[in-house]
Amino acid sequence: MANAMVRTVNLTAPQDKQKWLLNRITDGVKKVTLDLSTFVGGANESKYFASIDDENTVAYLYSGIPLARINNSNNFGPYDQAAHDGRQNKVAGFLESQVKVEFTRKGLKERYVDSGLRYMAVIDKGELPVAITSAKVDGLILSYDAGSGSDVELLSTVTASGSYTLPAASTNALGGVKKVSAPSEDTVAALKASLKSAGIFA
Description:
Layout: E1 21-24, E2 29-35, H1 45-48, E3 58-61, E4 66-69, E5 75-78, E6 93-95, E7 99-104, E8 107-108, E9 112-118, E10 120-123, E11 140-143, E12 153-154, H2 188-197
Parallel strand pairs: 2-5, 10-11
Antiparallel strand pairs: 1-10, 2-9, 3-7, 4-5, 4-6, 6-9, 7-8, 11-12
């Protein structure tokens, strides 16, 4: 981004459009550190920022940008199939809300900022700032296009067999369980035995 004749404009934050986010699943968001240098420049820069040009000193990243981990660091940047720093591997989640980015004559005022990464949600993938096509996706992400009335699509990474592997259940966390077999007889003891064999009872 050129910095000649910098002047301060766009100080008012644009409205955060979250048409991509249909339903938050519990509090499925975690704090991550963004490397803002990975959003600046390149073919998708105009898709990442709500407003950016050579005279702006302030811009805002759109919420919903697919985020990916950068190799050998705990930082995140935009998922990019053409990247070579690990961001091409899979989508870790989506930018929870818009992020203010400030520029100076020398470039970014701050290169690293903390933000939220949403890894559990129902989204409309057609409303994301950038397309994720056939990208692998972590977490628990479902997509639904209300306009077309299509089926809900599971975007999260699937196993080789094509089925999503649910986590193991525990006394304080939901998870996948086996189908319960029919009790051998109509008693509480027989029902308990069936539930234990299915992994529902410890």
